[in-house]
Amino acid sequence: MDIFAKDSSGKVYDIEVQRSSEGADCRRARYHSSMIDTRLLRRGQKYCEFSDSYVIFITEADVMGEGLPLYEIERVVKQTGACFGDRTHIIYINGENEDETSLGRLMHDFKCRNAEDMYYPQIADRVRYIKESEGGREYMCRIMEELNQKAAIEERKKNALAMINKGKLSYEEISEYTGLSVEEVKALADGRTA
């Protein structure tokens, strides 16, 4: 699950947990970095007021293949090696690393199924709550239901877009077949042609 956070100093973090290497492509990191800027930009704001932004990919495998626990990516001036200083940061965390560092222990805890095997008590307590308490199970059921509903809506939109691209059905017919409203179908069609 993705996390969007802002700390007390104004730094912004987009944390992406990726199981597959394809989900952590470097161009996807670029996209997420640009989306942070777009989301935070206010009309009339000066660019020098932009906060530091961090896109952090926590990956199951070592996507960079160098065996490091983490990879910090910064833009540099090629000719001098000097930091460009645009205050955007991309970090890849290697989920395969489970060494005795605090980061390695955190990656270990991410993969644990049993709270008793975890290093960090805060994570273990949350796992116990979710797995062992009635309130935690209800919470997880509600989250899973919301995720399933979201997936179903995305599937209906995908099917509607396929029908729109075929160009053989009216918006009303597509609405009837997909369960989307006519307005939603029109919005999808407008987005396709925009």
How would you portray this structure in words?
The chain is globular and about 60 Å long. It has helices at residues 26-40, 102-111, 121-132, 134-166, 171-178, 182-193; strands at residues 3-6, 12-18, 53-59, 70-73, 88-94. Strands 1-2-3-5-4 form a 5-stranded mixed sheet, covered by helices on one side. By secondary structure, it is an alpha/beta fold. The protein contains 6 helices and 5 strands.
Offer a few descriptive terms.
194 residues; alpha/beta; five-stranded mixed sheet; 46% helix; 15% strand
Summarize the structure.
46% of the residues lie in helices and 15% in strands. By secondary structure, it is of the alpha/beta class.
| Count, helices | 6
Q: Specify the helix fraction band.
A: 40-55%
Q: What's the overall average pLDDT, rounded?
A: 90
Estimate what percentage of residues fall within beta strands: 5-15%
* Main sheet: strands, sense, barrel: 5 strands, mixed
* Strand ordering within the main sheet: 1-2-3-5-4
Secondary-structure element order, as H and E? EEHEEEHHHHH
What is the first-to-last residue Cα distance? 29 Å
Which geometry do the CA atoms define? globular
Per DSSP E runs of 2 or more residues, the count of β-strands stands at 5
The structure class reads alpha/beta
Low-confidence stretches: none
Radius of gyration: 22 Å
List the helices and strands and how they pair.
Blueprint: E1 3-6, E2 12-18, H1 26-40, E3 53-59, E4 70-73, E5 88-94, H2 102-111, H3 121-132, H4 134-166, H5 171-178, H6 182-193
Parallel strand pairs: 2-3, 3-5
Antiparallel strand pairs: 1-2, 4-5
Helix pairs in contact: 3-4, 4-5, 4-6, 5-6
